[in-house]
Amino acid sequence: MQHGEAARSLEQSARDDSGGDTHRRSFWLIGAAMVIVFVVYPLSYGPVMYQVSMGRLLGLWPVIDMVYAPIEWFANSSEFGQDLVDWYLGVWGA
Fold first, then answer.
1. Would you say the C-alpha torsion 35, 61, 76, 69 has a positive or negative sign?
2. pTM
3. Once rounded to an integer, what is the mean pLDDT over residues 54-66?
4. Do residues 92 and 46 touch, judged by C-beta distance below 8 A?
């Protein structure tokens, strides 16, 4: 009877550990997604617009225009947004 209880205890601890790993992976996945959305995406606007201003990536313009529509909306929504986006594009020479 003790052997059966020990086996059940090991099975339970294995299930508990895998749940912890799942939560840890979920945490890091959500964190990485947030960094991409709130840091990498806006910072990529300058280099991409620079490439467009140099005559590159023109074939992808419809996709680029759609992908960066939220940043364009932000730029058109207020004077602060316009100033910020213009400054950042100026940093990149776009």
1. negative
2. 0.69
3. 95
4. yes
